[in-house]
Amino acid sequence: MQKVQKRLTIPWAQSIVDQHAYGATVSEVSILSIDIGTTTRVRLDIKHDGPSTLPHRWFVKLPSQLQRVKIITALPQLLQTEARFYQKLMHSVPLNCPDVLAIQHSWRQGTLLALADITETGAVPGFPTDALTPDQATLVIEQLAHLHAYFWNARNLGTAKDWLSGSMRRWEDRIGNFLSVPLMRLGLFRAGEIVPKTLHVPALRYAIQRCKAVQFLSNAPHTLVHHDLHPGNFFWRDSKPGFLDWQLVRTGEGISDVAYFLATALTPEVRRKHELKLLIRYRDAILRQGIGIQDNEALLQRYRAHLVYPFEAMIVTLAVGGMMDLKANLELISRVTAAIEDHDTFTCFS
Known about the structure:
The protein has helices at 2-7, 10-20, 67-74, 78-89, 134-150, 161-164, 167-191, 200-208, 210-218, 254-265, 268-288, 296-306, 308-320, 326-343, and strands spanning 26-36, 39-48, 57-63, 100-104, 112-116, 124-125, 223-225, 234-237, 240-243, 250-252. The chain has 350 residues and is an alpha+beta fold. It folds into two domains: 2-116, Phosphorylase Kinase, domain 1 (2-Layer Sandwich); 124-349, Aminoglycoside 3'-phosphotransferase, Chain: A, domain 2. Strands 1-2-3-5-4 form a five-stranded antiparallel sheet. The chain is globular.
């Protein structure tokens, strides 16, 4: 808390205001809330006499104050990746994203992102335990199809391809492969009865063979993917979705975003009833934009396989601890476990 207060001062806020409304004066910086997970997220109230277009409520992201989480997220440079996304790609992405006020880098203190708090413009932030309606899910699916079609086969990325799929991503994969088995084992233990015992052996077998599984999942046309589409990473303005938290953005198969989203954002009952219609909706939306894509059966098989990642992500999150609210983490594990069971996903890698 003290480290945060020492960094987020009136002179600091003034330096940002000067970039947007030179001559305006900051008189007070108040911390409204601090949430510590994969990053330290701070909501601020900034009193200034600038124009009404300059927000008074800011949302600031800093490196996590939890040391073990800070190490895990610092090695693959997740916060720096999100900063690069906002600097180099956000304005070409056909999605609603938050407005960026400042991006700052410090060798000693790490990367800082200052964003306009979406609530100031009437938007409603999502929470990880939200369960979306079929209509909301349809809106997200349409947006994902638009995003994926725009960057299909990694077009329109320019030099961003170098860092989206470059050395940092390979380093992240190496870390994941090295820690996969111990974290899977610990996560399954902590999940208790939420994950049936019948899934433990195939889950650990997947962890042992994770490198081959990742290669299999990567063997498809690549596009820009968010890679972390649980309900807490959305906001809603005028009933339309916006996308938050781009620190895991990369190139990958578009259906991976769809699998992550449907497995985490819908209750099992709603997903079972609507997922096939939503998958067809996604495919049709891609086709309307002139992109060739698999037929429905082939797309469903890739969807089945990609369900393994949200399962792994939520189990690893639980194993590491402190990266997400525990209640939310367990709820999402319950949802993705149901998806894994419904589609017998681990057989895709046997």
